[in-house]
Amino acid sequence: MFNPFMLVPLMICLYEILSLIVPLKISWPLKILCSLILLSGLAKSMLYRRTETGFDVLDMPYSVTVATTLIFNFIIVALFMLLVKDIAFILWRLFIRHPFPGHYASLFVFSLAIVSTLYGTYEGLRLPDVRTHEVVIPGLGRELDGLKVAMLVDIHADALTDSRAVQAIVERTNSLNPDVVLIPGDFVDGQVKSRKNDLAPLSGLRARLGVFGTTGNHEYYFDYHGWLKEIEGLGVKLLMNEHVILSSGDSRLAVAGIPDHTGSMMGVDGRDLTRALDGIPENVPVILMDHQPRDAVKNAEHGIALQVSGHTHGGQMPGIYSMVRKANGGFVRGWYNAGGIRLYVSPGTSQWNGFACRIFDPSEITLFILRRED
Ligand SMILES: [Fe+2]
Which residues hold their Cβ within 5 A of ligand 1, which is an ion? Predict the structure, then answer.
């Protein structure tokens, strides 16, 4: 069954067979076996499939999903290394008279790609660590000093981040005893009927002042209206051009959310930050959830104190990082000053099934401890 999404990965696989496997000094049956294993990674290219009700994510047993993840990750990781090797090959041919040591170069790339893939896949699939940040919020009242705000983003619940993984994330988050939990988008991948069980543990999140979220781009790829209902049914209050005001004693804090750009592109949801902030008293600081970080400088004009975003997955690995930075207004992971406001871009709590690999880019559960100005 031909799938147009397979064409580019197929070309990459053929290039890797020629550049990586053929030069190796191993028997031809072994070369054919390695090539077939590599080609089996193309199963990932069929991750999204069209069904009668729209796109859905291919549902395979967890062990098969992990196996194809490993092979596909190897294909992507090896690609960057092979490009470097082949540029070196061209330069060698131009300037050096001796034959290029093709076997050793391929063996080196093969070994390095295997080690990098195993490490990157482990990092991609493991339970995220907690990363804690104290953040000063101008105008924060005394009673809210020390407020614990946990942030989860890019959970991408599906066959890879299944209900067990989501449950583990929820338990680790609850162990922090957060006052508030924020989830700015990309909850899930797939149709509601296929994936609702994987996201279901989210209902176990516990936060004294509430669990709030907004949409990411992936919410719009599947049954959008169905997911909105499902996510709210799990106890997550979605803030779609809206805000809530949290208070403790005389101190107040606003949490606002705007839907992802994809909603506007698909004509489902518009983004309206003015409407989201309308009615917030001037002296009340605002935390804004916006799934993608690229509008942070524009959002800063509205006088918010802190924007929290995700979407970039922290760049995932060297080679891709600079492309992710370019596509996201220069924001990839960590803290930024964006037009005078503080922006925090989380590398994501989990992983997208399409490329579940993180090299020098661990996922995280973020914990902000809010502090008032001295
Ligand atoms: Fe996203």
Answer: 186, 216-217, 311
